[in-house]
Amino acid sequence: MSLQSIKYQRGSLEILDQLLLPVLSKYVPVRGVEDGWKVINKMQVRGAPAIAIVGCLSLAVEIHPEEFETKKSLRQEIEGKLNYLVSARPTAVNMKISADELIALSNELAKDDTVSVADMKQRFLHATEAMLEKDIADNRAIGANGAKTILEHVAETAGSAGASAVRVLTHCNTGSLATAGYGTALGVVRHLAELGKLEHVYCTETRPYNQGARLTAYELVHEKLPATLVLDSMVAALLRVKNIAAVVVGADRVAANGDTANKIGTYQIAVVAKHHGVPFYVAAPLTSIDLQIPSGDHIIIEVRPDREMTHVGEHRIAAPGISCWNPAFDVTPAALITGIITERGVFRPEVLKAEITALQS
Ligand SMILES: CSC[C@H]1O[C@H](OP(=O)(O)O)[C@H](O)[C@@H]1O
């Protein structure tokens, strides 16, 4: 079983086709931007950070063998192709943020007369390749920050000096298959396990793509972590009887006020967690935080094909002719979020914008 969602070396990019998991582990080549757009749009690769990394590396493999006459032509290629890749899926912000950063870099290099066109191409390739290691480092920091916060909350609530092992619930897939490795919310789970403080992790199936049943369960079984799969409809009952210490989920786009777009079903889990007094955390790198939008009302929610609901593979499970509503995400209001776990710290939603702005200044 492979957990490496992305295989890259200069001039070559392959992605693990997540539509085939867990039954088949098959890598497919991504030869350029058209392939990159397709594998993202079809969700052969998915997960906010992985989308950005695969998108940017698809451009890297495309321009690697090309010779550009001028820096202007290279800059135009970079800007046009990155903006095209942003259109593959609208909700996660990571691709947009990465595209803007790389476009800004190429504009800066194009203006610098001391930089040749060959140097400019090399600098661009290095910048895209650096995303892989940075994502893994960010995820490890998210894991450590999140585990610490959850254990402190549990100890504080119990009035004890240290927390015993905890039970957590997660939704969708936020692990190695959604990132360059280790994961965000699943990185918190991994770090709890590394500390010997993970009693049990529950993962929801996450209809209709089944990221939980097919991908998160795959990762947890692979690492022999104590895990149980539950149906999306079981969350309320689970929180009532299983003494869950915290819910930790990922994010596709966090607005400046902390409202968070994440996989459909996240909002209702947050409502149930509030009802049961269970802390609800969002785990996300800064590349998932969009300070340009004031609230979740401004987040575009991708609506996906009906067939993802009416069929499991080739097998029809819904009556022919029924109409469907298939938003891929929903928005959890900041008021339902206990904390946003990032690689730079854990922030309450009401201070997120100020804290992130201070970090970035
Ligand atoms: C680590 S971000 C993962 C994030 O992306 C998932 O959506 P999708 O599978 O449609 O790309 C889900 O919202 C996860 O929380």
UniProtKB/TrEMBL annotation:
Keywords: Amino-acid biosynthesis, Cytoplasm, Isomerase, Methionine biosynthesis, Nucleus. It comes from Drosophila busckii. InterPro entries: IF-2B-related, IF-M1Pi, IF_2B-like_C, Initiation_fac_2B_a/b/d, M1Pi_N, NagB/RpiA_transferase-like. This is Methylthioribose-1-phosphate isomerase. Belongs to the eIF-2B alpha/beta/delta subunits family. MtnA subfamily. The keyword Cytoplasm applies. GO terms for biological process: L-methionine salvage from methylthioadenosine. Catalyzes the interconversion of methylthioribose-1-phosphate (MTR-1-P) into methylthioribulose-1-phosphate (MTRu-1-P). Pathway: Amino-acid biosynthesis; L-methionine biosynthesis via salvage pathway; L-methionine from S-methyl-5-thio-alpha-D-ribose 1-phosphate: step 1/6. Its EC number is 5.3.1.23. PANTHER family: METHYLTHIORIBOSE-1-PHOSPHATE ISOMERASE (PTHR43475). One of its GO terms (molecular function) is S-methyl-5-thioribose-1-phosphate isomerase activity. GO terms for cellular component: cytoplasm; nucleus.
